[in-house]
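Hi V.,

Quick status before I head out on leave. The structure for the redesign project is tokenized and pasted below; the design run finished overnight.
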């Protein structure tokens, strides 16, 4: 990873953390676990006993994480960081 890529990643993660914290502080704390083609992230969650996520309930749906190419991920992070910086 180059220094420029690390800076992009750092800025992207920082912006994402701020976004998630603002959502939580505004009361948006919906149950929305992620799922990829092979993994259900609930399998690793320490809060399953209190979460009450149940796929048999209509409103309980997984957030599907699609596999992306590395170049596409970097492009989307670069675009998002530039957007946040107003470029």
């Amino acid at each position: 990873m180059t220094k420029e890529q690390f800076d992009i990643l750092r800025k992207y993660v920082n912006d994402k953390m701020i976004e998630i914290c603002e959502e939580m502080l505004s009361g948006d704390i919906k149950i929305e676990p992620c799922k990829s083609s092979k993994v259900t992230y609930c399998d690793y969650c320490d809060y399953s006993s209190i979460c009450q996520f149940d796929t048999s309930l209509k409103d309980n749906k997984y957030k599907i994480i699609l596999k992306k190419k590395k170049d596409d991920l970097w492009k989307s992070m670069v675009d998002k960081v530039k957007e946040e910086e107003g470029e």
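Above is the designed sequence. The mean pLDDT is 90.

G. will cover questions while I'm gone.

Best,
W.
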